[in-house]
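Lab notebook page, bench 4
Experiment: in silico fold of construct C2
Operator: M.H.
Input chain length: 725 residues
Purpose: comparison with the prior construct
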Amino acid sequence: MTADDQDDPSTDSETNGATGPGATGPMQGLLSHFCEALEQGLSPLLAPIGGLIEDFDRPPTEVPLVLPSLREAADQLSLLVDKMAEQQAYVLIFGPLKSGKSTLMNAICGKYVSEVSCLPAYPCLVHVAHAEKTRCQVTRYSGATQLLDDEAALTKAVAADHQLLIEAIRSCEAAGLDFEPQQHATNAIRRIDIRVPAGDLAESGAVLVDTPGLYARMKFGYDRMTRDFRNAAACAIFVVKTDNLFLDQVFAEFEDLLELFGRIFLVVNLDSTKQDLQPDGSLAPSLEHADPQAVVRAFENLAMTAALRDARQDGRLQIYPVDLMHAASSRISTGHDSRESSPSSAQGFDALLEDLTAYLNSNEYLRAFVADSMQRAAALLEDLDALLAHDDVTALQGRALSLTARRQDLDSALAALGQVEAVDWQALFARQSAHLRERLEAALGPCREAGLATLEGALADWFENDASLGELCREQLGPELARQHDELRKLLRDESESQLGPAAVLADLEADSVSDLEAAGLDLAGEVRAVMDAAPIADELPAPAAVFDCLQLPVRRRLLDWLLFRRPATVRQHLFGPADAPELPIPVADKGRRLGERGRAAMTGQLQALVKPMFDAAGEGVPDAWLTRHQAELLGRIEAATSARRQAIERESSEVVAELAQVEAVVARLIEVNRLVAERRERVSALREEVAAVDPADLGRPADLLVGQDEDENEASREAEQPLL
C-alpha cells in the first residue's frame, strides 16, 4: 500500500468483522483463495505507483497530462486491493437530493451517521464501515489524505471545500472550459471514509457507499465515478420519496443503473405521518400509512417504463415501501430491532434487509464478485499499461539520455577549459606584436617619401603663383596632410586587423587550442573584437597641423625696410601678414626675390617637421603604447571569460547531475513498474482462467473440501452461512 493508504480507515482491521480470511459465511473457501491471490497479485503495485505519482508531480519529472489519470488508476487499484484484502461487500446507495439516503444508511448501520453536507450534491462518494472508534478521513483529487477527529469536523471541512469547488467551477465556466477536478481543483475532496461503531456492519464487514444526489451543476465525473465503482460494488439501492415517485425526471438515468448493476433495491421512502382530508372534513392516515403496497402498485401500473418493468419481472429490480425515518429511529433507539416501529415500517425494512442479506450470501453475488473483480483487475492493468506508455512518460527516458549526453559534454568542456587556461598568451602576444612592427616599418618608409614628395610639389607650385601663405596651407598642404593622415590610419587599422584581429589570433593558435576553445564554449574571437573595437589603434594617431611658422622663415629686406630700421618680424609681417593669419597675396617676383632658395629650403624643412611626428607615431609610439594596453585588456578579458565559463559549466554540471539522478531514479522506478505490471497481468490472466474452470456453485465451499469428495460430503462439511446484514 502507499503511504497514504496506511492510515486509511477503510484498511483498518476493525472493518474486517467476520468476513476476513478464515472467517465463516459466504466469504470463505475458494472465494477467499481467489480474493487472497488477487490481492497478493495487485498489492505489490501500490507502493511503486504511489512513488511514480509523487515523482510525476514535481520538477523535473512532472508529467501533468498523465498525472490525473494515474492518480485515478492508483485510487481504483487501491480500492480493489482493499476489497480483496478485506473481502468486503460494497453496497451503493443512489437517489435524488434529500430522498432519504442518509436516513437509510443510519437505519442499516443502527447508528446515527451525520450527513456529510447539507449542501446540494457534494460530488464525492462516502464510504461508511464499522470501527471501534468514530473517525473520518478525506481523500482529495491530488491523492492527499487528511484524518479528522469527528463528524462535526468533517461537516465543517466539506462546507468550506464546497465553496472553493463552486469558485473553481465558475472560473472554468467564465473561461469556457469543461471543469475537471483532476486538473482545476486538485485539492477538492473526491472520497470520504467514515468509521463508526456499527454492530451489523461489524458482523458483515459490508461497506455502505453513499453517492451524491443527482444535481446537474455538480454532476461532473458522476457517470465515470459510478461506473468505476460498479466493479467493486455488490448491488445498488435507489431511494426515492413517494412525492417524487411519479416524476419522470427522477428515473431519467435509472436505466443506466440497471445496466451497471445486476440487482437494484428500490426503496420508496414513506411518510407515514401524512394525513388526507376526508369528505366530512376530518383527517385520516394517508395511503402511505394505510396501504403502502398500494403506492407500489400504482407506480408499477402508471409510471414504470418498459425497462423498469422488465427488470421487475426478472427479479433484478425489487421494490420496498419503507418509512425510513421511523425505521432508523427505531433501530438506533432500540438496539436494531425495527419491529418496535410501526408494522408497515417493520415489514418493509425487515424485508429489505432479508433480501439484501440473501443476495449478498448468494452464489449469484459470489459469481459477480469474483468475475467483476477479475475483470476490473485486468482493465486497471491495461489502463496502467496505456498510461505508462504515454509519450510524456516515455519521454523521460529520452530526457535521461539527453542529460547523460549533456553531462559528458560539460565534462569535456571543463577539460578543454583547463587546456585553454594553460595557453601561453604572453608569448602569442609577443609574436603578434613583432609581426605588426615589422609590417608597419616596411610600409611606412615608402608612404613617408611619397607624402613628402607631394607636399614639396605643392610648395613648388606655390612659388609659381601669387597665393598667400595661408592659402597654401589651407588649400594645398592641409588637405594633403589630412589625406596622408587618413592613409596612415587605414594602414594601422588594416595591419592591426591583419596581425592582431580575431582571425589572426585563431590562426596563430595551435589547432588543439582552437578545438579546446570551441569545446569550452569560449568566444575568443568575440573577446578580441570587443577589445579592438573599444579602442581602435587608428584613433591614437595624432593629426598634423598644416601651419608654417612665419617667424622662422628667412625674408630679405627691401631698401625701405633698411631705411625704416624695421625688425625682422615686422618685415615678415609686411610680406605674409600677421603670423596667425598670413593671408597677404605675394607676387611671384617677391617670392623669388625675397624668399629665394633659402626661404624655399626653410619651408621644405618645416614641411618635413610637420610630417615626421605623424609618421614616427605611426611607426613606434602609437603601436607600442596601444599594444601594451590592448594585450593587457585582452588578457584580462580572456581570464575573466575563462573564470566565468568555468563557474557556469560547474554550476550547470551540478544541476545536470542532480537532475539526472532524479530522472534516472524515476526511469528505474518506471522500468520496475512496467515489469511489475506485465508480471501482474500474467498472474491475473492465469487467475481468471482458474476462476473460469471452477463451478460457480463451488465458490462458497471451503477450499480444502473441494477435491476428492462427493456432493454429499461437501454439503456436510459446509459451515453455516452468517448473514451479512
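Observations: The chain has 26 helices and eleven strands. The two ends are 29 Å apart (CA to CA).
Next step: discuss at group meeting.
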